[in-house]
């Protein structure tokens, strides 16, 4: 086995949407009370869960949920409903929080993100970022100069396919010009990212822990396949 390309997931893998107290201090629930710490943590989990339905939804919103990463309008629609059902009833508060979610500058990189991208690129591997997402994450990389290490961004809302569908993995390896059997997918979801194995890719799972609690999982994953 020779790894010639690495695909990285974005949320929970390279970057994480971390709780910022300033976002949540003025949020109030249906009773007008501030959200407690547990409610705040659950809110952040629901905003970033890679798979699974996080609240009960009617047919209209369920369709939006199932297709949220293909269409930015559906993404906005369903996440505002998720926030409403998660204890943020005031529309202006929900919208402000949603706008944080889709702002790449608000996402925090893991401590070894730069090192992992650089290590793969400097070894001559093709590097891609493959994400189920409904907004452009490239600015999170360009702002740090890390786009220099990334050959291709394959984003679900741009290609009309989502992980674990084979089509999005196929598009990614074709964009990199490397066979699936020579490609490593690194991600935090066994269900979504692990779907790459059905195309023939290798797969390394990382835990979507808070960034402070996961200092070197990306480099460890690469070393496991001899590419760092």
UniProtKB/TrEMBL annotation:
Gene3D superfamilies in the cross-refs = HAD superfamily/HAD-like (3.40.50.1000)
The EC number on file is 3.1.3.-
> Example GO molecular function term?
hydrolase activity
| EC class (word) | hydrolase
Tell me which Pfam families the record gives.
Hydrolase
For this UniProt entry, which residues form the secretion signal? Answer: none
Record key words, sorted: Hydrolase
Which InterPro entries does the record match to this protein?
A: HAD-like_sf, HAD-SF_hydro_IA, HAD_sf
Q: Which NCBIfam families match?
A: HAD-SF-IA-v1, HAD-SF-IA-v3
Designated name of the protein: HAD family hydrolase
């Amino acid at each position: 086995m020779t790894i010639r390309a690495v695909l990285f997931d974005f949320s929970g893998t390279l970057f994480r949407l971390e709780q910022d107290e300033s976002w949540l201090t003025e949020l109030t629930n249906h009773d007008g009370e501030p959200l407690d710490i547990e409610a705040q943590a659950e809110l952040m989990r629901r905003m970033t869960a890679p798979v699974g339905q996080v609240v009960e939804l009617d047919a209209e919103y369920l369709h939006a949920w199932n297709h949220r990463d293909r269409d930015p309008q559906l993404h906005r629609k369903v996440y505002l409903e998720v926030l409403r059902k998660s204890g943020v009833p005031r529309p202006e508060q929900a919208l402000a929080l949603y706008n944080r979610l889709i702002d790449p500058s608000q996402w925090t990189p893991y401590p070894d993100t730069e090192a992992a991208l650089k290590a793969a690129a400097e070894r001559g591997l093709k590097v891609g970022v493959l994400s189920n997402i409904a907004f452009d994450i490239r600015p999170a990389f360009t702002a740090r100069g890390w786009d220099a290490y990334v050959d291709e961004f394959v984003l679900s809302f741009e290609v009309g396919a989502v992980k674990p569908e084979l089509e999005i993995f196929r598009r990614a390896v074709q964009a990199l010009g490397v066979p699936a059997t020579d490609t490593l997918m690194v991600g935090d979801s066994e269900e979504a990212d692990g779907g790459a194995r059905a195309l023939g890719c290798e797969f390394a799972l990382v835990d979507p822990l808070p960034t402070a609690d996961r200092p070197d999982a990306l480099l460890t994953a690469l070393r496991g396949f001899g590419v760092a």
